[in-house]
Input
Amino acid sequence: MNKLILALAICLGLTACGSNGTNKSDTAKVEQTQPQETKDRVEILYFHGKKRCATCMAIEKNAQEAIEAQFADELKNGTVVFKTLDISKAENEKIAEKYEVTWSSLFISKWKDGKETYENLTEYAFANARTSPDTFKNGVIEKVKALQK
Output
């Protein structure tokens, strides 16, 4: 019964925020080449639209809190980067297209030697950010730590 309620809650949350235009599963890894050479890093990318539900705002708030608390030194030296991107703004159109984002989404990417590997954590974020913020924060922290290796 609890699984049914959780599934319904996730579906309602996803519907409230729009439709998902991505073809990748939340655990799919995709590799891309970086156009210009920059330093190796892990990026946490939170995408959102103009209108946001409570869960969407919890994803941003809790992800940012976790990253700032756990990776303050890395944020300063640029080996960890947290970006919030409003996909309704023209300047974010290309990056939204790159990740095939059409609504609130959370991606974590690793740049190593000019090549990017990323994972879509959107479903995990919607399932946990608002209802289990500590679980969500720990999951984001562990994912970043794993990608730093």
The CA atoms of residues 108 and 143 lie 8 Å apart. The chain has one domain: 2-148. The beta strands are 29-33, 41-48, 80-86, 105-112, 115-120.
